[in-house]
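Hi everyone, sorry if this is the wrong subforum. Our group has a chain we'd like a structural model of before ordering constructs, and none of us has done structure prediction before. Sequence below.
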Amino acid sequence: MRRLVMCASLTIFAAAPAAAQRHDDQYYYPGAFNWTFLRVYPEAARLFNAFDYGHAILYERLSQGSAGVRAKIETDDFRFLTTDLLLRPPRFAIAEDAVMPRYARMAYRAKQMFDWAHLLHRQIYDIYADERIPADAKAPLVERITDYYLSNRALAFAVEPKSMGLMDEAYYSQVFRKEHPKFNGLIWAYHWLQVGLYEPLIGGATPAERRSGLLETVTRFRAMLDQPPSGFPKVMPMTAAVAPAFAARHQRAAIIFDNLHMMHDIISDILASDKVPANRKAREIEVALGEFRDGTKNTISIAEWREMGEMMGGVAQMGGVAWRPPRRP
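Answer:
Right subforum, don't worry. Here is the predicted structure as tokens:
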């Protein structure tokens, strides 16, 4: 009964105007696997806390609008993240609303959609990090929690791959990456890591190989920070290219994450673009969120989605394949 009430309240939330949006949350899928990734692989898991802060401060700066505030993104904020916070990431999740109060008031639905998709990300890490779960039970469990994610229709990204034109061809598109190339590259590097971590967790043959592969992937991410922006991905990482084993095994989740990452770029462009008046930014974000919940328009085929890496210049432009299993005798 509680879940039915929760879903009903979220349906009301989805239809409400921005000023009346409710801040309801749906509980994460229960299971003994929850929080395993943080316990077993804190070197990787704590990085997500640092980048939650990075996304939050970015959207807050952009939503404030002034050139002086926005200039801090490429200087003070980038420097703090790359020379401090990512080197010593927080042990606990940050209170994003406290970091981005202005943006949260403007686009709370966007925040909730991102939170809901990030929770799916982390629960998949948890499942694959939990050595108590039999290997042949992990993939069906991931599909089960993907079903649960999609049951929240008010906040779930579509499982149909969306056209890159939505990100690159709108009247406000590509502004952020041109004005803030270092921070944009950092976000793409983070998205590379988010999907790339699945590869050793899925492809490693033993716990030791999984740990070694995961640490290797984290090390590659950190190497991207050494010479910004030249070390960063040149185009948005696509999951099928960067994490092919994960995309083959969990196609729906891979598409959800690509749609999520496109939406990150779109919101950055809307907030950064002077072509979008301040009083229309919230509305443009709402329109984009509706587009990415709708799997019936502006989509591409699965074949096109899988070929997108080559169409965008090859996986090397995206940071490369995250991890490959060692050759076995």
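For your construct planning: The longest helix spans residues 42-64. Residues 62 and 75 are 14 Å apart (CA to CA).
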